[in-house]
Specification:
Chains A, B: It comes from Halolamina pelagica. Two copies of one chain form a homodimer. With 232 residues, the first copy, chain A, is an alpha/beta fold. Chain A has ten helices and eleven strands.
Chain lengths: 232, 232
């Protein structure tokens, strides 16, 4: 299973807000074996949201959208997602009921917030107000991190990729010195190895077979300089 | 002037690394009055990089690409950017010289790192090793934040948008209660106002005329409940 994430918000594109939602969703999807192929931030504009969601829906198994739900003038994500699927937005009865239970009395606010793409499955926001929605394989979540995380958890079982197994080895050598051994371990065990330089170089072994991941990590441990050795 | 940012790296798509480069570049471009229209993360794959860079080059005034430079097997950004422009990569003499000055002796490493899209303008990496490049209006920077930041600074003058002026007002009212006044201040002063809820609601006024920004902020200060008042 593969997926794309679309984060909506001018505040992300001006650098006013760090896009922690994207990183959080990427990690959860990776845990479930789902390959994230794109993460894209778009402005609070209906046409931009619609274009990108439409393209990704055609290409990937699932699209996850966050941000831009609610009653303010720049909350246009539901309109954008509706347009991506050639639908209108309409008042969702379940969503309107949730809002009234939360004490939202104003007709205007309830209507603005409870309008979802026609035929969407509404998602309850247990940590806040604005409801989410599922349209075919497109999931729309709020932008507030706690709300998004709780709503993702309520549908997490619907994201089911090939389970992968991960092992990590720390190397006390420059990344450039490791190239031949990284190529060799990938060939030898049929695994994928990423190298992430920091104070040491983290080698991340990923495999669909847990035994292959463990054997590749053991081979790397024998063949690269260990962090402990170099600390002496 | 508008722009798109493309960040390259599997480690971003698995949530192993927070995409701080994108946020940093967005803020610098916003400071210079450049509208960032897209921020997209793509995997370390030539075809994906090429497709996205090609699309954004056709649509936006500038494309900024970060990550995936260097000698390891998954550093394929230069090939991807070259393919986006229908070019080959070729050894750049200036880039090779910089690497040799850094003490890179191995022929293989120099070649792998100093190959840039044919006809590109090389960019010196003053904080690290892998050179960057400019191809038409596409800027390619390293992924290591300190290296990317220094390299962006060396070409920052080439990003020149319409100067905008920003004022911020903190409101001690729920965002939903502010809707009418946000609409009114935008109409009245011809400014854009974003609202960012947190402990208080930050209202960010943006205008091309500094006087309009100040007047709108003063109007908001008079018409919304202030944080100090509510603290009493």
């Amino acid at each position: 299973m593969d997926a794309a994430i679309v984060t909506v918000g001018d505040e992300l594109l001006t650098g006013d807000t760090e896009n922690t939602n994207a990183t959080w969703l990427c990690a959860r999807l990776d845990d479930r074996g789902v390959d994230v192929e794109r993460v894209t931030t778009v402005p609070d504009r209906v046409a931009d949201i619609a274009r990108v969601v439409n393209e990704y829906h055609a290409e990937y198994d699932a699209v996850l959208v966050t941000g831009g739900l609610g009653p303010t003038h720049d909350d246009v994500t539901m309109e954008g997602v509706a347009a991506a699927f050639g639908r209108e937005v309409e008042l969702d009865d379940a969503a309107a009921e949730w809002l009234q239970e939360e004490g939202y009395a104003s007709e205007d606010l309830v209507t603005g917030t409870a309008e979802l793409p026609a035929g969407a499955r509404p998602l309850h926001n247990t940590e806040g107000v604005a409801p989410g929605a599922v349209v075919e394989s497109c999931y729309v979540f709020p932008g507030v991190p706690a709300e998004m995380q709780a709503m993702f958890a309520s549908v997490a079982d619907e994201f089911d990729g090939e389970q992968t197994y991960i092992e990590r080895v720390e190397a006390a050598e420059p990344e450039s010195a490791l190239l031949d051994r990284l190529a060799e371990v990938q060939d030898r065990f049929g695994v994928t190895v990423g190298s992430y330089p920091g104070e040491t170089v983290t080698l991340k072994v990923t495999a669909t077979d847990p035994e292959a991941a463990r054997e590749a990590a053991a081979w790397l441990t024998d063949h690269v300089q260990q962090v402990d050795e170099s600390a002496e």
